[in-house]
């Protein structure tokens, strides 16, 4: 099984995390829903449970923009990481957990706005698009154990260190393991070299002149989405119909690449899309 030594300088971004086993296929991401000078002990315990059970990295994610960019930089710098265990409770102000899931599900628009999240400023403005795409290819699954905002019951799976340990353990098994609806095992390193990237700027909002052109692409994508079958069957090679719609708006794919749209019952939608694309 392919495993690689992470490059010098890994992990490239500092943060509230601990480095564990570099060859592990999983990182643990605990949502921090308070100020970082007052981290609740139960969240620290979750991060430590990740490291104790041999995760590659285990720590806190606080914001839907710069915090998430740091996670991306550190993960693409270690191709061995193929899974993220997402836990803790969602931060109602920033929605970083929802943003991470939406990123992995739908990607970003040309403006680097994460598609499909209600977070207030979900822009990954300080890292290149290639890095974001690589992150989405490298991470095959996010094991979502995230609790609702304000959840205090430490017996909930996303707040229970034992459940986090079991999730991490499942990710590095040689044979597939069923864990809460996810089939997990160590599939080996992503077969491309590590990418070392250090964030130079710390902008959480894109500049207006760059935002505008992409924003219209996003709006077009949302319009195209209305005419797609919305089965999310992935037969077009995209993760979701929304991701397909955004790529249609960017000119990166054609309606013919959706075989479901080709069925006779989709003729009206096909025609409408063709007119919109004229
Ligand atoms: S093939 Fe069509 S229906 Fe299936 S995911 Fe792609 S766009 Fe959606």
Structural summary, described in words:
With 278 residues, the chain is α/β, with parallel strands linked by helices. The chain folds into two domains: 17-184, Rossmann fold; 208-277, 3-methyladenine DNA Glycosylase II, Chain A, domain 3, CATH 1.10.15.40. It is built from eight helices and seven strands. It has helices spanning 41-52, 66-76, 96-106, 129-138, 161-171, 208-225, 241-250, 267-277, and strands at residues 17-19, 26-31, 57-61, 83-88, 141-144, 177-179, 182-184. The protein has a five-stranded mixed sheet, sandwiched between helices. The chain has a two-stranded antiparallel sheet with strand order 6-7. Helix 2 (66-76) packs across helix 4 and helix 6 crosses helix 7. The longest helix has 18 residues, at 208-225. It starts with 16 loop residues before the first strand and ends with a helix. The model is unreliable at 207-214 (pLDDT under 50). It binds iron/sulfur cluster. Residues 228-229, 231-236, 238, 241, 244, 258-261 line the site of iron/sulfur cluster. The site of iron/sulfur cluster has 15 residues, from helix 7.
């Amino acid at each position: 099984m392919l495993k690689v030594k992470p490059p010098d300088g890994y992990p490239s971004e500092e943060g509230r995390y601990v480095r564990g086993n570099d060859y592990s296929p999983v990182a643990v991401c605990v949502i921090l829903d308070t100020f970082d000078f007052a981290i609740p002990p139960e969240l620290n315990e979750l991060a430590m449970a990740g490291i104790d059970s041999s995760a590659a990295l285990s720590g806190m994610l606080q914001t839907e923009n710069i915090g998430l960019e740091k996670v991306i930089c550190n993960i693409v710098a270690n191709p061995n990481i193929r899974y993220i265990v997402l836990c803790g409770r969602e931060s109602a102000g920033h929605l970083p957990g929802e943003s991470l899931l939406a990123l992995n599900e739908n990607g970003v628009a040309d403006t680097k706005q994460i598609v499909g999240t209600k977070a207030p400023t979900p822009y990954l403005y300080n890292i290149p698009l290639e890095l974001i795409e690589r992150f989405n290819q490298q991470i095959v699954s996010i094991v979502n154990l995230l609790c609702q905002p304000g959840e205090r019951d430490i017996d909930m799976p996303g707040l229970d260190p034992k459940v986090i340990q079991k999730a991490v353990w499942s990710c590095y098994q040689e044979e597939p393991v069923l864990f809460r609806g996810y089939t997990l095992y160590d599939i080996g390193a992503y077969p491309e070299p590590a990418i070392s990237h250090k964030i130079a700027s710390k902008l959480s909002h894109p500049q207006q002149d760059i935002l505008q052109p992409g924003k219209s692409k996003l709006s077009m994508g949302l319009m195209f989405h209305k005419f797609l079958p919305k089965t999310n069957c992935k037969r077009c090679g995209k993760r979701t119909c929304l991701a397909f719609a955004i790529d249609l708006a960017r000119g990166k794919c054609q309606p013919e690449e959706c075989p479901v749209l080709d069925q006779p019952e989709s003729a009206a939608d096909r025609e409408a899309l063709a007119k919109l694309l004229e």
